[in-house]
From TrEMBL:
Family: Belongs to the radical SAM superfamily. RlmN family.
Active site, per annotation: E96 (proton acceptor), C337 (s-methylcysteine intermediate)
Protein name (database record): Dual-specificity RNA methyltransferase RlmN
Cell compartment(s), UniProt: Cytoplasm
Record's function text: Specifically methylates position 2 of adenine 2503 in 23S rRNA and position 2 of adenine 37 in tRNAs. m2A2503 modification seems to play a crucial role in the proofreading step occurring at the peptidyl transferase center and thus would serve to optimize ribosomal fidelity.
Binding locations of [4Fe-4S] cluster: C116, C120, C123
Pfam families in the record: Radical_SAM, RlmN_N
Ranges for domain Radical SAM core: 102-332
């Protein structure tokens, strides 16, 4: 498995691409289906083990394409069963993937970028800076590894690891298509969730090409606070974000938007905030995930007390908004929400761009 930038990586191809490749090489399309199935369904990357692929095609493939996957270089199991995998990419950058078992279910939390450029105030990934987008192969490769480790495909995938998936639109969409393919991981659309900080134009774009579940990192019920916590809000304020999310689920009455709301002590967790939130989400079929803030070194945020989180939750529930407090999993191995860091050579040099005035951080758009 040698990475070679000039050669196609088979893990970057969806079913149609695999068929086209095989036809280009002078063989029937169905061999492309078999090839795709060997790689994803059976986890086979050795051409010689692909017994129903003609020998001449195997040779042609060997001569033209590579099969290259991220490499698991560390495996951190946690006491609650959560496991964090550190994966190294061909260029030496590292990403993290988290496996969360829950009875019969198993969720894989997948990264979409090396680092993140979005600078959310309370997120450890943001501190790493940003290097690059992941390729389709690097995104799907995380699921490939999970399926090999588990002996079966995971039941759920959440695009909630490092990075902003809607800032890596094409690769994220193609990777999610492969996850849903019956010849690959067979995940139903409800079981693949894309989480975004709110890149509004790409929420509309996503609606055109995909029907995965949508989760949005809300974290604040008004623009003033959200501008501070999730700076992309300065570009796409709530008055644009909420209608985009509503539009995303509009053609299916059973669908809901999942809102993620990190509970920051004394910042966004009062009953007044809950009331604003109720007003904001009026008329939007919603599910709210309250996430206790997961601390990491180098910031002043604190976690809301369980009592405060419960009071907030009850207030929302009484208003008819389905709200759940997310169990914190894997925090002692730094695998919980917002704690994934990998190894990122920052290319944005953002510290030079952030202005600090009167003790407040000004993050340029
Ligand atoms: N960029 C996408 C995907 C990341 S999802 C997005 O923003 O949605 C990861 C989730 O964990 C997001 O909802 C994020 O806001 C949340 N999160 C980040 N830092 C956190 C922290 N320290 N504690 C709890 N949740 C956090």
């Amino acid at each position: 498995m040698i990475a070679n930038e000039t050669r196609t990586n088979l893990l970057d191809l969806d079913l149609a691409d695999c068929e086209a490749l095989v036809v280009d090489l002078g063989f029937k399309a169905f061999h492309g289906r078999n090839l795709f199935k060997w790689i994803h369904k059976h986890g086979v990357t050795d051409y010689d083990a692909m017994t129903d692929v003609p020998k001449r095609l195997r040779e042609a493939l060997r001569g033209t394409v590579d099969i290259y996957l991220p490499r698991i270089i560390a495996d951190h199991p946690s006491e609650d069963g959560t496991t964090k995998w550190v994966m190294e990419l061909a260029d030496g950058q590292r990403i993290e993937t988290v496996f969360i078992p829950e009875g019969k279910r198993s969720t894989i939390c997948v990264s979409s970028q090396v680092g993140c450029a979005l600078e959310c105030a309370f997120c450890a990934t943001a501190r790493q800076g940003f290097n690059r987008n992941l390729s389709v192969a690097e995104i799907v490769g995380q699921v490939w590894h999970a399926a090999r480790q588990l002996g079966t495909a995971p039941t759920n995938v959440v695009m909630m690891g490092m990075g902003e998936p809607l800032a890596n639109f094409e690769a994220a969409v193609k990777a999610m298509d492969i996850m849903q393919d019956d010849l690959a991981y067979m995940l139903a659309k409800q079981r693949v969730t894309l989480s975004t900080s709110g890149i509004v134009p790409n929420i509309y774009r996503l609606r055109e090409v995909s029907d995965v579940s949508l989760a949005v990192s809300l974290h604040a019920p008004n623009d003033e606070l959200r501008d501070q916590l999730v700076p992309i809000n300065r570009k796409y304020p709530l008055s644009e974000l909420i209608p985009a999310c509503k539009a995303y689920i509009a053609n299916d009455k059973r669908r809901k938007v999942t809102w993620e709301y990190v509970m920051l002590d004394g910042v966004n967790d009062s009953i007044a905030h809950a009331k604003q939130l109720i007003r904001l989400l009026e008329g939007v079929p919603s599910k709210l995930n309250l996430i206790p803030f997961n601390p990491f070194a180098g910031n002043d945020f604190g976690t809301s007390t369980p009592e405060r989180i419960e009071a907030f939750r009850v207030r929302l529930t009484r208003a008819g908004i389905f709200a759940m407090t997310r169990k914190t999993r894997g925090d002692e191995i730094s695998a919980a929400c917002g704690q994934l860091v990998g190894r990122v050579e920052d290319r944005t040099r953002r510290l030079g761009r952030i202005r600090v005035e009167d003790g407040r951080m000004e993050i340029p758009r």
